[in-house]
Amino acid sequence: MITEATSFPMDISHYTFPKVQPHIDSWLRIYGKNILYWQGPQAELIVTEPKLLKEIMSVREISMGKPDVPLISNKIFGGGLAFSQGDKWAKQRKLATHTFNGEQLKNTLPATIEGVEMMLKRWKDAGTKEKEVYEEFLIVTSEVISRIMFGSSYEEGKKIFQKQEALIPLAAKKLYKTRIPGLGMIFKDKYDLETEKLVDGIRDHIMPMIRERETKTTSGDEDNSKTDYLGLLLKARDDIDASYKFSIQDIIDECRSFYIVGHGTVSILLTWVTLMLAIHTEWQEKAREEVQQVFGNQNPSSEGIARLKKMDMIINETLRLYPPGISTTRKVHKETRLGNLVLPPNLNIQIPALALHQEREIWGEDAHLFKPERFSKGIANIVKNNPGAFLPFGYGPRICVGANFAIIEAKIALAMILQRYRFSLSPNYVHAPVQRITLRPNFGVQIMFQAL
Ligand code: HEM
């Protein structure tokens, strides 16, 4: 059904759920709001009923539990924080929270601004009016995450990114392929072999970065080892009292997984927001006016970023209609009774954010329209009557650790673009959102830029 639905583009409509997840859309229509299905031997409950959703979200053990990672995803994301459990997760989470929140977050501003300035300079030098923005945003977000996490530049990280990007279509091909458990370890198909080659290549690029940092730290030649994420990971490895001790493999996995989650998602968010503003130009004008009021022609400051309220509304509305992560998943570890349901251990749970974000019963008859004004009173106002209605960053203890950083990065990039350009949709754009791990534009997003 997915192959068929994505074999042709769609009109420019924001009702993307039936196109991107036609199987779930049709099951919800046939079987109701909660569906149990099997992917091979693995049972999964898809939940969209608000009452059950609320109950599930209130059970802490379920909120903590992540499904076992399919072999192919494990290869792609490594065993990083997004998939780890128990003491290892707690330790990784604490370090990442420290890096991407509070005061530390302010330290990320200069690197973000610098990355965006480089992109804008490239645009100016190239002089062409039409740009494919998804590719552009992939570069800028890669640049930023390389600097913030590892103190390295995009050029250094480029080879890793290219290999990581090459892994995504391989994973997408295998996402819905079911195999007899264990067979994948013995019989490898061409996708497995290609994946292994790329994974080994990534490891070969990351190891020298770690070794170089270790040498600098030991020789006292490292000034940001205390603040960036790689520095924190290496420091934590030497903590002998810790309940979980990081191995070098853990650090490689964590680097890889942050390379992916740290830029793949933000670049997509920026792409969809740019598309929205190119189509809904009245909101582009409102956003530009706000940016000019707050910053004039100056670069964004952390105090000013918090005052960009219209931009918040635009970003939230885009995350609602085009959430980069289209589902949140959980695993039941011990038998749990919820209402008249008994959830057995090992059951996976999927909360399909895209479906919930586009549900008329929750958002009203205009659910499929781009209307940022619905967020004018903030997110809390929306979710208070509908828990689970808005989940672009997931929920509970495993909510996205980089959410604040992502929003700030997106606001900086958008503000700096709006200060310099007015933009509109190119006639070459073809609307084709697809799930390739994240929700992406299948043929990119072509935008016409006009310097102000
Ligand atoms: C627009 C940008 C982003 C979106 C839409 C997004 C979305 C998500 C979602 C849906 C989850 C799953 C949460 C859950 O299961 O409840 C998640 C987890 C996570 N995200 Fe993000 N993310 C974004 C940006 C980032 C960035 C920039 C970083 C890092 C710098 C990051 C790091 C992570 C990590 C490490 C986890 C796993 C957290 C855990 O399991 O404890 N994300 N993200």
UniProtKB/TrEMBL annotation:
SUPFAM superfamilies: Cytochrome P450 (SSF48264). Pfam families: p450. PANTHER family: CYTOCHROME P450 FAMILY MEMBER, CYTOCHROME P450-RELATED. Keywords: Heme, Iron, Membrane, Metal-binding, Monooxygenase, Oxidoreductase, Transmembrane, Transmembrane helix. Heme binds at C400. One of its GO terms (cellular component) is membrane. It comes from Tagetes erecta. The keyword Cell membrane does not apply. One of its GO terms (molecular function) is heme binding. The keyword Transmembrane applies. Belongs to the cytochrome P450 family. This is Cytochrome P450. InterPro entries: Cyt_P450 (IPR001128), Cyt_P450_CS (IPR017972), Cyt_P450_E_grp-I (IPR002401), Cyt_P450_sf (IPR036396), Cytochrome_P450_Monooxygen (IPR050665). It is found in: Membrane. Its cofactor is heme.
